[in-house]
Each structure stands twice: as structure tokens, then as C-alpha cells.
Design a protein that fits this description.
Blueprint: H1 6-14, E1 19-23, H2 27-33, E2 40-43, H3 47-50, H4 62-75, E3 80-84, H5 94-106, E4 111-115, H6 121-129, E5 134-139, H7 145-148, H8 158-174, E6 178-182, H9 186-195, E7 200-203, E8 211-214, H10 216-219, H11 237-254
Parallel strand pairs: 1-2, 1-8, 2-3, 3-4, 4-5, 5-6, 6-7, 7-8
Helix pairs in contact: 2-4, 5-6
Bound molecules: 3-methyl-2-oxobutanoic acid.
3-methyl-2-oxobutanoic acid (KIV) binds near residues 42, 46, 203, 213 and 215.
Length: about 260
């Protein structure tokens, strides 16, 4: 299978072929995802919640991101590998933005993702001029969860919708190759997708986006209590993993594992 690149994603949008994107944080899952037809694998800073048990993504450090990007890069050959720029590593000055992106790219990322709109366009432009493929992220932006005050749908009401449209246009003009829209009313996301020259990849943004992204562990049902409206669980790994481990515990205790066929002569 050929490696997916940013031009392939543009072509998917042009030809009306939906784009698929999933998060991944480690080598084992990277190998499993590699040949499933996923276009983009995101080492999201959601790894803070999913892998590291942080309260939110503002706790994620560049060292956390680099560790997981390297692991995923070792297991991935086909999908485009994109990595999140961590909280407040791209706001202060362009030099720090470029240095952070360089470290992520040298760890194996083929693209980086930044959260925000017009306020980060100078940084997006500098990265693109430096040769970095940049993905935008609008709507609910998890790194701003404390400013927003929770996981709230964005773009409701005409003023907010207008701001979102303007941010999407500005990011496109700054050179992003794709845009994630998170927790946005479906009608607005459909409108932005229709006029956008770059693919719009939705999460909680309805059916009309050019593609869909989910957190892998959410799709697999690793957390039985996490049931937001936008999520479809394709597996129930929480129960299956616990069941498997309880079976192991029971069999070791009652002596039915290991059997003779598991022994060396
Ligand atoms: O960090 C992440 O997982 C993300 C996706 C939800 C798009 O940004």
C-alpha cells in the first residue's frame, strides 16, 4: 500500500471520497492500524487523558508527545502521521513554534496540528513557509477547555458561527492542508466543508464533513462510562479486557492454566 500524503487527502475531497483519521499512541496499535485503510493517524495530545491519566491536555509536555510519536512512527508505514503541538508551545513566538515542530517532525511526524483560528495564523504561515504540513483545529479546542468552561458545542448563534467561518477561511489562507472541526452544529460544519478548499475532518460535527476522526480508545469502548452523543463504539474492549483478565486469574488460581501443552520438556 502506498503511503498517504497531503495531496492524496486533497484528491479524496475533490473526488468525494471520505477521509478517515484515528488517534494512536503506541507501537502495537500503530501496527494494527497500519493496513486498515486509515488515511491519517494522529498522535493527539488526547494521549494525556488516554495514556497518561492527566486531567486534560493542558498537562501534556513536548517530551510526552515526542515519546509517543517515536513509538507510533516505528509501527506505521501507510497512513499520514500527524502530531499535536502541545499546549502553549506555539503562541509566544514563531521561533519556539518552529523548534517544537522540528522536534515532532524529526521524531517521525509528517504533519503537525495546532488548535486555534486567526490568532495563530502567523505561526501557521511560518511553519508552512518552513516546509511543515499543518492541520488546523477549530470548534471545541481541548487545550482551551478552561477558557471555554467545559466540553461545549461551538459555533451556536450567528456571531459564533461567523467567527468560526472567518477562522476556517483564515487558516485555509495561511496554508493548512486540512482542518479538524470538533463539536460544531452539523449544519454549520456542512457549510464550512462545502466552501472549504481543504478537507474538513469532523468529530461531533455531523455527516457532511469530508472525513471523520475519533479517538481510537473511544471507538474501541475502553471506557464504559464515556458516552458522548457523537461517539459510536465499535467494540466493548473495557468488558472484554476485564473478562479476559478475570479468566486468567481464575484459571491460575484453580490450576487449569498452564496446561501440559504450555510446558517445556
Ligand atoms: O488530541 C486529539 O485526540 C484530537 C482529536 C480529537 C482530533 O485532537
Amino acid at each position: 500500500m502506498p503511503t498517504v500524503n497531503v495531496r492524496d487527502l486533497t484528491a479524496r475531497k475533490r473526488n468525494g471520497v471520505k477521509i478517515t483519521m484515528l488517534t494512536c499512541y503506541d507501537y502495537t496499535f500503530a501496527r494494527l492500524l497500519d493496513r486498515c485503510g486509515i488515511d491519517v493517524v494522529l498522535v493527539g495530545d488526547s494521549l494525556g487523558n488516554v495514556m497518561l491519566g492527566y486531567e486534560d491536555t493542558t498537562q501534556v509536555r513536548l517530551s510526552d508527545m515526542l515519546h509517543h510519536v517515536r513509538a507510533v512512527a516505528r509501527g506505521l508505514t501507510v497512513p499520514l502521521l500527524c502530531a499535536d503541538m502541545p499546549f502553549l508551545t506555539y503562541h509566544a513566538e514563531v521561533g519556539e513554534t518552529l523548534r517544537t515542530a522540528r522536534r515532532l517532525v524529526q521524531a517521525g511526524a509528517k504533519a503537525v496540528k495546532l488548535e486555534g483560528g486567526r490568532e495563530i495564523c502567523p505561526q501557521v504561515q511560518a511553519l508552512v513557509q518552513g516546509g511543515v504540513a499543518v492541520m488546523g483545529h477549530l470548534g471545541f479546542t481541548p487545550q482551551s477547555v478552561h477558557r471555554i468552561g467545559g466540553h461545549v458545542v461551538q459555533g451556536r448563534g450567528e456571531d459564533a458561527a461567523q467567527r468560526l467561518r472567518a477562522d476556517a477561511r483564515a487558516l485555509q489562507d495561511a496554508g493548512v492542508f486540512a482542518l479538524v472541526l470538533e463539536l460544531v452544529p452539523a449544519v454549520l460544519a456542512a457549510e464550512i466543508s462545502a466552501v472549504s478548499a481543504v478537507p474538513v475532518i469532523g468529530i461531533g460535527a455531523g455527516r457532511q464533513c469530508d472525513g471523520q476522526v475519533l479517538v481510537l480508545h473511544d471507538l474501541l469502548g475502553c471506557d464504559a462510562e464515556f458516552t458522548p452523543r457523537f461517539l459510536k463504539k465499535y467494540e466493548n474492549l473495557a468488558a472484554r479486557v476485564q473478562n479476559a483478565v478475570q479468566n486468567f486469574v481464575g484459571e491460575v488460581k484453580d490450576g487449569s492454566f498452564p496446561e501440559q501443552r504450555h510446558e517445556y520438556e
